[in-house]
Amino acid sequence: MANTSTKSPSTLLDTALINVPKSFRAKLIGSYLDIKKNSIESRYDAAGMAVAKFCEVALRLLQSKVLGTFTPFGTKIGNYADECRKLVTAPATNGSESERVVLPRALVFLYTMRNKRGIGHVGGDVDSNAIDIAAMARTSDWIVCELIRINHGLSLEEAQDIVDGLARSEERRVG
After folding, report:
1. Which of 112, 125, 170, 175 is the most buried (most CB within 10 A)?
2. Residue 165: which of 30, 20, 11, 12 has the closest Cα?
């Protein structure tokens, strides 16, 4: 069993995602850790902002891998769902099915939750921010685990330990 308990989450993720280009990897990890931290601290608006950044970085990464080009950082992404749809309809030879189909669909869900719920808005409805952010944090966990599965530069045992740790992180907190 690999000993991953002594490394910081950022270092572990950096190692686990070593095959993701650094320009994407650093932004992806930073926004992901911001989601987790703000979610745990019940800072819903901040967590929602981190979700938006995470989605935008992940989309750009997938665009790069599947389409060979991506919306440059600093350039506004047009219609997010349409950009994800371009990945879904890309030829099957342009990356794995997860990169072309599954991850973009998860990102559309995540981005839609962030934009269409009460986060960052004052409303007169039932406040569902806690469960909304919990769903977004867990979806982000899944996306990171899937990216590790596809891009890891570790032994299978080490990669599995990290993925299992992310899968159990919320169980320890809730259960």
Report:
1. 170
2. 12
